[in-house]
Amino acid sequence: MSDPNQEIKDLILALDKKLEGIDRKLEIQVTEIKSEIRLVKTDLEAKIDLTRNDLESKIQGARNELEAKIDLSRSSLEVKIAELSGKMDGYSKRLDQQEFISRGAIVALVVGVASGFIKYLFFSN
Question: What Å distances lie between residue 1 and 6, 10, 45, 96, CA to CA?
């Protein structure tokens, strides 16, 4: 018969070798997974940067387009304001003339009424 202690030692050594093999396989798999994760991370970062740059360029394009439209609207409004200002000047000149004429008519009316009243009072005999 063989020594039972020796058999146990042999079994332990065999198990130890199998465990070392499993440990190496696990370490290799962990290393492969880590490298794949790094590749995926790098790919995702590149895609994120590309998308960010694309969005920034689209936003900048939209901003430039809006600024151009705002400038066009502003210049159009300035032209319309200038036109309205000219019309208002014309209207104010007409109103000034009408006020002058109205004042002259009122003064003439008052003078006429006053002269008629004076003539009636003093020269009615």
Answer: 11, 15, 66, 138
Higher pLDDT residue, 60 or 10?
60
Q: Dihedral angle at the C-alpha atoms of 37, 38, 42, 47, nearest 10 degrees?
A: 0
In tens, the pLDDT along 42-58 reads 999 999 999 999 999 99
| Residue 31 to residue 36: CA distance in whole angstroms | 9
Residue 85 tokens read as: 């200002």
Higher pLDDT, 97 or 42: 42
Q: How far is CA 88 from CA 49, 71, 75, 96, 103, in A?
A: 57, 25, 20, 12, 22
Positive/negative CA dihedral, 11, 13, 18, 23: positive
For residue 102, what are its two tokens?
Answer: 């109205």
Question: Residue 2: what pLDDT?
Answer: 66
Q: How far apart are CA 117 and CA 82, in angstroms?
A: 52
3-state secondary structure of 124: coil
Percent of the chain with pLDDT over 70: 97
